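#struct-queue
[09:14] JT: dropping the first one here, sequence first, then the structure tokens:
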Amino acid sequence: MIDIKSVILRTEDEIVSSWIHSEVVVSIICATYNHENYLEDTIVGFLMQETDFPFEVVIHDDASTDNTAKILAKYVEKYPRIIKPIYQKENQFSKGGFKPPVYVEQFLLGRYIAICEGDDYWINRNKLQIQKDILEEHSDVGLCFSKAIEINEAKDNEERIICDYNKSGIISSKTIIYNRGGSIPSASIMLRRELFDYLRNNLYKFKVGDFFIQSYFSIISNVYYINEPLTIYRRNGIGSWTSNLSKSNENRFNNEREMLSSIVVFIHDMRSHKKSRYLLKPLFFYYKNVLYYVLKNLNITNVAKLISSTKELIVGCIKSIKLF
């Protein structure tokens, strides 16, 4: 594993000199917000990539209130042909429904998309080359990924391997969907942009993008696993989704109700694909949790509110089951 702090970066001219043509092949999407403690590692992981093809790095800063934008600007100045910043003046995520991959996709030039958020980073200099070669060799594969090393900042940076499937090759749609978004480290993903149409038009509807990106590609194409850790995933980092997820029962209920609602919509959209039947398991999982909360917290003062907020959703679940 590369020690990201000890990497000595090449100049932009040195990076570009290894490219055998000028057309961008891979576009890297990086969403960042208040990642001043992490973003430099992320950018170094991008710039240390050794490829024979051009790649671009599009970094979306969602109106950070710390020094994230300054750090980004420093690297844009040094690598203007590679790093392309998008600076928001107002935070878009807080407005609801905003998904950085969908927004940023319109600015991309590459035919493949790699994803890495601003608090994760890559640890293999050949990550992009390995994944691009796999996608070019396997026309049936829409997405490829690797296992990752998770660093848990809430446990003194304890490390463990996640998403380990022991052997490189195709991972079943069933395996990916049944794990409800925990099957693929998002920072390890590379996907075919030509298959992005549905997500471009629909991802904004869904509560948590990771589950639906992973499930969608596993339903419409094959997904290929690389049996080596190519990336670091930070858990409970400052400003991360895992650290901000509320522990209150009411907020957990709202999160799971929104996930259930999203899965109902997704099942309806994917109903023509045979592999969409695997979506019934996460549907039942969130249905059970929502129903349990309603029954556990039912009392004379909130009965009307709980029933009205879940009645339509439960009907939608029943209709989804009938599709199969």
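[09:21] JT: and here's the second one, same format:
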Amino acid sequence: MTEAPAPGGGRTPPPGSPLCSRPARIGAAELGGERVVIAVATTADTIDGTSGTGGARGSGSALAQALAAAAGGADLVELRLDLLSPPRAASPQAQAAFWHEAILLVAAALAPTGTPLLATARSRREGGGAAMDPREQAEALEALIDLQAEHRAGRAIADALDIELSTGALPALAERAHQEGIAVVASNHDFTATPPDGEMLDRLERMEASGADCAKIAVMPRSEEDVDRALQVAARARASLSIPVAVISMGERGRRSRLEGWRYGSALTFATLSADPAAASAPGQPTIAALLPLSHRDRSKTRAKPGGFPQADGC
């Protein structure tokens, strides 16, 4: 494939890496650098073990899982806000307040490890647990950003926020997040099929045009050809967009896209700490041990500093 000129007259990214002309910094992690960034998501339904069941898709609390991910070498921890047991009949504002407190707790715990935090409230229409329509979700995310802004000066907050393209409010939410120094990972998920190449590219381009710092899509393959198409879309998007991209083919069939996607330009991939499929936040995620050789992170920083929070074996 012929490499496209970098947008804005910048450097032309070489093939075989996620390197792009406008990398995104999320805390200590650089998306769009020479190596892929590895994220590990929480799956528990309780933030600190004081309520909930520990999550049908994982064990322990979200706080313990986040600390274990940091100690295990994750470049980025994704706090799945949507999987936490929410207040009953919560309004978007009440939901935002609940999410905000969870972020403050996990961000403070991760601060001594240097591991950045991506906050995600995945909607049910895109495979998550947040029972909100696009308007409600946009209202909750806007309220969440406002709450995070109030605490920015004195306490650790989320380094990045996942915003679904389907909210219809990505431009406004991205602008608001950037005002508070919060990076934006725009996302779109299709758990039923792999759309046509042009449609996948269009979604990524719309994310960039809407102000996202990273554009991510995850699709479900029905054949090996679908996986190949997703990888080629990653390569085409990396060549034509200036921001980092992540194109993931889900399920067991798509697992190789998580292991090899960086060769096609995907800047971000997701892993689990355990080989147990129940620990995954999405189907087909490999273990972090399988992905660590691809990561750029200095492994000497994966342990908490003296006086910090517990390491993985203490969680």
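[09:30] RK: nice, looked through the second one.
[09:31] RK: The helical segments are 62-71, 92-110, 134-151, 170-179, 197-209, 224-240, 255-260, 288-291.
[09:31] JT: good to know. The first strand starts at residue 24 and ends at 26.
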